[in-house]
């Protein structure tokens, strides 16, 4: 049995130009190295899985490579890079041991680079023991701190660091990166399936790669939207399109039956009504070319939105969004939550009828 390497490790960027979704930070760090304007203490902060540790490791390697006047490809600068996980080494003694090591210059290269991950986990005593060294480090020492929770770091530490805020990675960037990996791995995929994975990852590329690996294993190298939606416990777009078609046709029995099918599949009523509100919102923005860029879905699904949007008036969609939003807000307080959603669906099914307004008012009263 061959050793399997997960995509997050196999395709971890080794250069700044390979980093996904953090181009401005990567460019800034590259310029700082080339111009020799790199500070001795940096803080990388942002959500999980967006490239903080990856950029820290790339930077640590690049610092010594750039600082050597006669670079030798056989020289191993990894001995100059020290990684400390502050989540499990957060005591004052751990920091004192690190401070003791900092005093000694590197045997190879010009700099010793210390990467402290999850630095917000350090105790107050450990932070205080680290302050003096961070403020006046030896010329050969560079500290790169990484955290997902900047607000937990004491201000005296923040003031001594040059801060880089990493952002959530855009869905389109994650999808394009997954597509490149799928092609390299010989995985067949539907464009909308990758888009759904990217949405589920919520801006974290590492999460997207983890989901991707799991789904590739399940699908035996084939990613289909319907299977991806089922495994990720996400209602597929077709369900919302069918519900909307039934509402536009004023077919209350069909709408109620479709909602029952959703519940039978194990989906939560509040998640459904919230998703339906989002669907109406997407239909509304699909009606105008100026807002079409806000429609964050795959190409095939976008075509369906454009087609269904032609059947709806802007007023109907605004009323539908309002009904869904009100139902979402009132859902938790309701004693009969299924009925609450069904009333909303009946209201939605009445919007396009000639007496839709009066029906809506009578149901609200």
How widely separated are the two ends? 66 Å
Rounded mean pLDDT score: 85
Q: Percent of residues in beta strands?
A: 5-15%
Specify Rg, calculated over alpha carbons. 27 Å
Order of helices and strands: HHEHEHEHEHEHEHHEHHHHHHHH
Number of helices: 17
Helix content: 40-55%
Report what the structure shows.
The chain is built from 17 helices and 7 strands. The chain has helices at residues 7-10, 23-34, 52-67, 92-102, 124-135, 155-158, 171-185, 191-201, 205-219, 225-231, 237-248, 252-264, 269-285, 299-309, 314-330, 337-350, 356-364; strands spanning 41-45, 81-85, 112-117, 141-147, 162-165, 188-189, 222-223. It has a 5-stranded parallel beta sheet, covered by helices on one side. The longest helix is centred in the last third of the chain and has 17 residues, at 269-285. 36% of the residues are buried. Mean pLDDT is 85; it is low at 357-363.
What would the keywords be for this entry?
365 residues; 55% helix; single chain; 5-stranded parallel sheet; 7 strands; 8% strand; two-stranded parallel ribbon; alpha/beta; 17 helices
